[in-house]
Design brief:
Length: about 110
């Protein structure tokens, strides 16, 4: 069995909470829509063990799997709305400023 890369204790609480909510949403929607676990797994190309992890909000499950499940169940736009293009469009040559107000040029800043 492969080693888990992430544990809920290693995540910021907001991220762990969001994964938990997405997992509960996937589980509830699957039951509400009467989609069998085996059918959803087959459509997504995952095992039932992976689906169980997903429905528990396990951070070891890839984000792509979460998004695929939400898409298949028809709730992706509500659960994970698209970001405003302003977040990825080029806004010029902005630099991160350090807390003392100076421009930080050290590449090891983060």
């Amino acid at each position: 069995m492969p080693k888990k890369l992430l544990d809920n204790q290693d995540l910021p609480s907001l991220v762990a909470e969001r994964l938990n909510v997405w997992g509960r949403c996937i589980h509830a929607q699957r039951l509400r829509q009467r989609v069998k676990a085996a059918d959803l797994c087959k459509r997504m190309g995952i095992s039932q063990a992976t689906l169980r992890r997903l429905e528990r909000g396990d951070p070891g499950a890839g984000i792509g799997i979460y998004m695929t499940a939400l898409l298949i169940l028809g709730v992706i736009d509500k659960a994970a709305p698209a970001l405003d293009p302003v977040f990825w469009q080029d806004t010029g040559n902005r630099r991160v400023r350090s807390q003392d107000g100076g421009v930080k040029t050290n590449v090891d800043y983060f």
